[in-house]
Amino acid sequence: MALGTYVQIIIVSDRKGVDKAKAAIEETYGMVAGYEERFDYRREGGALSRFNRGTTLARDEDGLLYDLIKEAVSAAELTGGFFDPTVLPVTQLWGFDSDSPKLPHDNQIREALKNVGYKRVEVHEDRIVKPADVRLDLSGIAKGRIVDLASDFLKSGGYHDFLVNAGGDIYVNGRNAEGKKWRIAIQDPVRPDHYSAMVNKTDSAVVTSGDYERFFIEGEKRYCHLFNPFTGYPGSDIRSATILAGDAMFADAIATAVFVMGSKEGLAFLHRNGIEGYLIYNGDGVESKSTPGFWR
Predict the structure, then answer these.
(1) Contacts of the segment 272-278: beta carbons below 8 A, 24+ positions apart
(2) Which of 42, 53, 270, 295 is at a distance of 20 to 30 A from 100, taking alpha carbons?
């Protein structure tokens, strides 16, 4: 358990290398825990938590966090703000960082939105600066980044055939135990014990954002943890958005943004930017659409 989900690491090895591979997996799990401490706003002693309490992050103070925030701001610009790392006041207002999420009042949401806006974060060559009332939630990109860091570590150890999976943020390298591309199932958001599609990939990130893991129901309406940064409310016809990319960090941010955009605008965004994706959404029943290259 890490990053608020199950983390799975598989290394394909011959019998002689099993003990070494197991040791590498354990070391990677330790690294994942360290990165979680660093990038999670909930960790009082973590680097992001400290930055949220202040206004400036020097690049030489924490280069990894600097790079992650820089990429988060770039993703916000690319998606026109549908991915926004400054949405923390809204996240906390809804209580999705606790065990008791709740529906806030409209005026509370309007007040929280006053402190949301990625354009208020200034990225300079040597530092990142923000106002004191702006606080970052990197949940929509950090998990993907940690998957990439874990994958890079395994590659540096000489491993070529492996899978890293952090609750739907997946990176696969090389081949599986059968010598074939890795088979990745995309969960059915309506029937969690089924899958809706299967893809065969190698040397790729496959990341899914959906409404079926973290949600609550009030007044017969379903509210999930993925918020529209412009309205402060969750609300999308998409049930899950799966993105294919070269790295999990990029795919993570794009999956979050596309989910929030909704199926029509989300699919148009993918086509416009040459990004491959697969969307499951509410139409006449539950429907799905994908970009042409997603299945290749």
Answers:
(1) 273/78, 275/243, 275/244, 275/245, 276/243, 276/244, 276/245, 277/241, 277/242, 277/243, 277/244, 278/186, 278/197, 278/199, 278/241, 278/242, 278/244
(2) 53
Tell me whether residue 29 is in a domain: no
Q: Which residues contact 244 (CB under 8 A, 6 or more apart)?
A: 199, 201, 204, 205, 206, 251, 275, 276, 277, 278, 293, 294
Task: Answer yes or no: is 191 within a domain.
Answer: yes
Per-residue pLDDT tens digits for 183-216 = 999 999 988 789 999 999 999 999 999 998 889 9
Is the pTM higher than 0.85? The answer reads: yes
pLDDT tens digits along 125-138:
999 999 999 999 99
CA torsion through residues 184, 189, 194, 197, sign: negative
Look up the domain containing 273 and give its range.
Answer: 166-295
| CATH code where residue 282 lies | 3.10.520.10
Q: Which amino acid is at 120?
A: R
Dist. CA 51–CA 165, nearest whole Å: 28
